[in-house]
Amino acid sequence: MDEVESLEKAIVEEVTLFPYNEKWPSMFEAERDRLFHLFSDDFLAIEHIGSTAVYGLSAKPIIDILGGVDSMAVADALIAPLCRANYATSMEFNALLVGRRWLMRYAEGRRTHHLHLVVCGSQEWKLRLAFRDKLRADTELAQRYEKNKLLWSNDFKLDREAYTAAKGDFIRQALESAT
């Protein structure tokens, strides 16, 4: 499957959650190590984020990776080399993003990884890590998030954008209540 086919399939891929998989942390570590090996001068830090980074939480089985870079210019310069390293992206989608770039890996008929390139230490960086850390530290919040994600995955099974928007509202509220 080529990059265009992968992206087209990803756009219409159903939202399906799976129980926590003990392999998710090692899948992240393997990809982090691969990225550091391939781009050692470009990444300042690489973090595991998203639901697969929270022990016990159900998730879409896609490893979310936060790649910290010096600047958005570095992020933009990394897109082509990352695509040569088995990532795909949509330049149109990235043009809509402020403060980050998005890429994905696709294998065995499904997405396996999302890579979010952001400036290390930026507000975007801090917020993504803060939510992950809040879920890891607050079991009740993680359970509420999971319960809502299961409802949203049923309500928006064929509408990934609506599912993502619903999660975004929850995340914003959780982070606002922490400050």
Automatic annotation (TrEMBL):
SUPFAM superfamilies: Nucleotidyltransferase. It comes from the Bacteria. InterPro entries: GrpB/CoaE, NT_sf. Gene3D superfamilies: Beta Polymerase, domain 2 (3.30.460.10). This is GrpB-like predicted nucleotidyltransferase (UPF0157 family).
